[in-house]
Specification:
Blueprint: E1 4-5, E2 13-14, E3 30-31, E4 38-39, E5 44-46, E6 52-57, E7 61-62, E8 65-66, H1 73-86, H2 92-101, H3 106-110
Antiparallel strand pairs: 1-2, 3-4, 5-6, 7-8
Helix pairs in contact: 1-2
């Protein structure tokens, strides 16, 4: 069995293993528009009024602002590669897929305007 992956505060799932009787089966999660990880109700970022933000996860966005204001697209790519290399929470292949999608996400589209 592969190492379980914990996605932004949600229960761990084993990447590459068949999913049976799992809450993730019928869900088509939105992606955080900063890091590219799935976002669910439990890990949505927050606005100033403490309401949930539908675009960003809590690891990227809280109180209506990005937690790392100076983070660039390249910086996010490096951060994700380090996560795959050092933390065993995500595989290199999974990170490569996320990195390919990053330029399409809202945060990185805004930085190119």
């Amino acid at each position: 069995m592969k190492t379980p992956m914990k996605i932004c505060g949600l229960p761990p799932i084993a990447i590459g293993e068949p999913i049976k009787n799992n809450i993730y089966l019928d869900m088509k999660p939105d992606l955080c528009q900063s890091c590219g990880f799935p976002i669910f109700e439990e890990n949505k970022g927050t606005n100033r009024d403490n309401s949930k933000n539908d675009d960003y996860c809590t690891n990227c966005y809280q109180n209506r602002e990005f937690l790392d204001h100076s983070l660039s697209l390249h910086g996010m790519q490096v951060k994700l590669m380090e996560m795959a290399a050092f933390h065993n929470e995500i595989t290199l292949g999974e990170v490569e897929q996320i990195i390919m999608n990053l330029p399409r996400l809202k945060r990185w589209q805004m930085s190119s305007i």
